[in-house]
Amino acid sequence: MNFFNVMLLAAEEESAGGGNSWVMYIVLIVLIVGMLVFSSINNRKRQKEVNEIFDSLAVGDEIMTKGGIMGKVVALSTYENGEKLMTIETGEGDSKSTLTFVTAALHINFTKNKMRQEQLAKEKAEREAAKNNKDAKTEDLQLEEVEEDAETVAKSEEEQK
Predict the structure, then answer these.
(1) For the chain, what percent of residues have pLDDT higher than 70?
(2) Which has the least CB within 10 A, 17, 73, 98, 143?
(3) Long-range contacts, stretch 21-27, CB < 8 angstroms, 24+ apart
(4) 74, HSE (Cβ side, Cα atoms, 13 Å)
């Protein structure tokens, strides 16, 4: 039974004076539990991605903080309470300055994004090459089949003569 059939059954029972609203309560409980489970799964995925970003942070990475400050990571450290810290260098020439942030302030890691884009481009090129290779093999097989068919036709014509 699908959801709408269950809802119709519950409405019919209630309107008929059956007073059995337990079906409606079960449906509501199942819906609430389902929403909680799906939101929990999504939160875990999001937290895993955030942890991977923080763990991949390295000295020399070009980053942007959530506040919009852009710079280069010059040091990584850990605070007394276990909070991870990053020190970034901003500015040019004589006006360079260093700022220390908790890694939770990290918004974008440009260095890792460039590496990821290069990796995706390489994988795409490999897939295209494999596809082209497969297409060439398919064409070769088709040509062989046509040649075999032509030979078969020629033999059958010779036999008929």
Answers:
(1) 70
(2) 17
(3) 27/3
(4) 11
Q: In 3-state terms, what secondary structure has residue 135?
A: helix
Backbone angles phi, psi at 108, to 5 degrees: -135, 135
Query: In this structure, are residues 106 and 86 in contact, taking their beta carbons and an 8 Å threshold?
Result: yes
Fold classification of 58-109 is SH3 type barrels. (2.30.30)
Q: Which amino acid is at 5?
A: N
* Banded pLDDT at 13 (limits 50, 70, 90): low
Question: Which pair of tokens denotes residue 161?
Answer: 């003569």
pLDDT tens digit sequence for 106-117: 888 887 777 767
Tokens describing residue 30: 């199942």
- Answer for the pair 99, 110: CB distance below 8 angstroms, yes or no: no
Residue 1 per-residue DSSP state: -
pLDDT at 35 over 90: yes
> What sign does the CA torsion over 9, 11, 16, 21 have?
positive
Residue 132 reports pLDDT greater than 80 = no
